[in-house]
Amino acid sequence: MGERLRYMRKRLHMTIEDLSRKSRLSHNAIARLERDETRKTNPWVLGRILPFLASRFKETFPESNGDAYDFLIPPVSFGAWLQNLRLKRGLQLQELAKLLGVHPYTLIRYERNQTKPEQAVRLRFMERFGLNGELDRYF
């Protein structure tokens, strides 16, 4: 995936410094990502980079349907949907936990499909992110 991210960045005539400044990620973080030196990329990191590279996503990943976020983390379960949401919003786990009023470890269990949120947390999801029944298919 690193080669494809580098390709997208270069096709947009961006340097690592340009992308670093726009995405608010360090130069080293982007360079490691492009060299595939990370074991697992956090969704919030991709969420910060993809908005600046999305115009070349379909060209770089022709097997996708054009939606970069759904291609990288298909929302087939509640946990995957939650990771996809964090990716789209560029949120770190702690940031989302604070928004929803839950502990970060609770979100980890949600993302691993070990537990599902109670009704009060589901309502906070809908309020904070303007969801209209989108969560219903996972419960």
Question: What do these coordinates show?
Answer:
The chain is mainly α and 139 residues long. It folds into 2 domains: 2-65, 434 Repressor (Amino-terminal Domain) (Orthogonal Bundle), CATH 1.10.260.40; 73-138, lambda repressor-like DNA-binding domains (434 Repressor (Amino-terminal Domain)). It has helices spanning 2-11, 16-23, 27-34, 43-53, 57-60, 68-72, 78-89, 93-100, 104-111, 119-129. The longest helix is centred in the middle third of the chain and has 12 residues, at 78-89.
Name of the CATH superfamily of the largest domain: lambda repressor-like DNA-binding domains
Q: Per DSSP, what share of the residues sits in E-state strands of 2 or more residues?
A: under 5%
Instruction: Please describe the biggest sheet, giving its number of strands, its sense, and whether it closes into a barrel.
Output: none
**CATH architecture annotation of the largest domain:** Orthogonal Bundle
Sequence stretches where pLDDT stays below 50 over 5 or more residues: none
Total helices: the number is: 10
Gyration radius from CA atoms, angstroms:
16 Å
Mean pLDDT: 85
Number of strands: 0
* Mass-distribution shape: elongated
- Series of H and E elements: HHHHHHHHHH
Q: What can be said about this structure in brief?
A:
With 139 residues, the protein is mostly helical. The protein has helices at 2-11, 16-23, 27-34, 43-53, 57-60, 68-72, 78-89, 93-100, 104-111, 119-129.
